[in-house]
Design brief:
Keywords: Monooxygenase, Oxidoreductase. The protein is an alpha+beta fold. It contains three helices and four strands.
């Protein structure tokens, strides 16, 4: 498996819009991306403006397809201007699973 973790911060007052856009891309991945093994989204309990995604893919090629696909492009078209600063992204091969 190959993973991607992203940390995003919404601009003040735009938390609900960013959340809705993340839920859309997650639904798209579930319905349209068979090589996306998991797409998890959390919202910080300490700061509602902070969201974290943890995404699992069959391999790096599947991750690349996801990142270049309609779901991801739709998210950034809808929510890109609502993000406060750059998205922190960490990718790599999964080394442990439970």
């Amino acid at each position: 498996m190959f993973t991607l973790t992203a940390i995003l911060r919404a601009k003040p007052g735009h938390e609900d819009k960013v959340k809705a856009a993340l839920l859309k891309v997650g639904a798209f991945a579930r319905e349209q991306e068979p090589d996306t093994a998991g797409f998890f989204v959390s919202q910080s309990a300490e700061d509602a403006r902070v969201f974290v995604t943890h995404e699992r893919f069959a391999d790096q090629a599947a991750m690349d397809r996801h990142n270049q696909g309609a779901g991801s492009k739709g998210f950034f078209a809808e929510a890109g201007d609502l993000l406060d600063g750059p998205v922190t992204v960490v990718t790599g091969p999964e080394i442990f699973e439970k």
